[in-house]
């Protein structure tokens, strides 16, 4: 389990929470925090606010297979939260996200070679030809 804390401006909290909800984080704890941070106030235009009212968002995430993608995001993406390589193409789900290949299709470009095999051989898993360096 991983605890994530984020301090946001109160007027942004609702937008941030709904964005988190969209991304698959339904359980976010919202707390109001006050005080003067390290930044000694906030300057907006010509006005400096020194007592800041802020909102702290806290959420707990799980990453069962420890591949760097939390369970709720994996469930939302349709990948297996208990398996680092959902489509068994030798590229982890995280690698696939980073490379824009399909984590649920072992052969994203449909050329008969698995995504992982293409990467290992220096080929582009998203189309014909070699990977650009
Ligand atoms: Ca995971
Ligand atoms: Ca994979
Ligand atoms: Ca794949
Ligand atoms: Ca391929």
Major sheet? 3 strands, antiparallel
- How many helices? 4
- The first-level CATH class of the largest domain is given as Alpha Beta
Our count of domains comes out at: 2
Q: Structural class per helix/strand content? A: alpha+beta
Return the CATH architecture of the largest domain: 2-Layer Sandwich
Termini separation comes to 36 Å
Per-chain topology:
Layout: E1 2-8, H1 10-23, E2 28-35, E3 42-44, E4 47-49, E5 52-61, H2 71-77, H3 93-99, H4 115-120
Antiparallel strand pairs: 1-5, 2-5, 3-4
Care to give the gist of this entry?
The chain is 26% helix and 23% strand.
Structural commentary:
The protein has 4 helices and 5 strands. With 133 residues, the chain is an alpha+beta fold. It starts with a strand and ends in a 13-residue tail after the last helix. The protein folds into 2 domains: 2-61, Alpha-Beta Plaits; 71-120, no CATH class. The longest helix has 14 residues, at 10-23. The radius of gyration is 21 Å and the shape is elongated. 26% of the residues lie in helices and 23% in strands. The strands form 2 sheets. The protein has a 3-stranded antiparallel sheet with strand order 1-5-2, covered by helices on one side. Strands 3-4 form a two-stranded antiparallel ribbon. It has helices at 10-23, 71-77, 93-99, 115-120; strands spanning 2-8, 28-35, 42-44, 47-49, 52-61. The protein binds calcium ion (4 copies). Residues 87, 89, 91, 96, 101-103, 105-106, 108, 115 line the site of one calcium ion. One calcium ion binds next to helix 4.
């Amino acid at each position: 389990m991983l605890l994530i804390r984020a301090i946001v401006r109160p007027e942004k909290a609702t937008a941030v929470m709904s964005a988190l909800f969209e991304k698959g984080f339904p359980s976010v704890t919202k707390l109001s925090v006050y005080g003067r941070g390290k930044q000694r106030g906030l300057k907006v235009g010509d006005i400096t606010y020194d007592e800041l009212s802020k909102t702290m968002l806290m959420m707990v995430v799980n990453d069962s297979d420890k591949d760097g993608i939390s369970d709720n995001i994996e469930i939302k993406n349709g990948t297996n939260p208990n398996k680092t390589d959902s489509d068994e193409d030798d590229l982890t789900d995280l690698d696939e996200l980073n490379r824009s290949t399909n984590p649920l299709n072992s052969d994203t470009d449909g050329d008969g070679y698995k995504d992982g095999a293409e990467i290992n051989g220096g080929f582009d898993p998203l189309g014909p030809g070699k990977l650009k360096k």
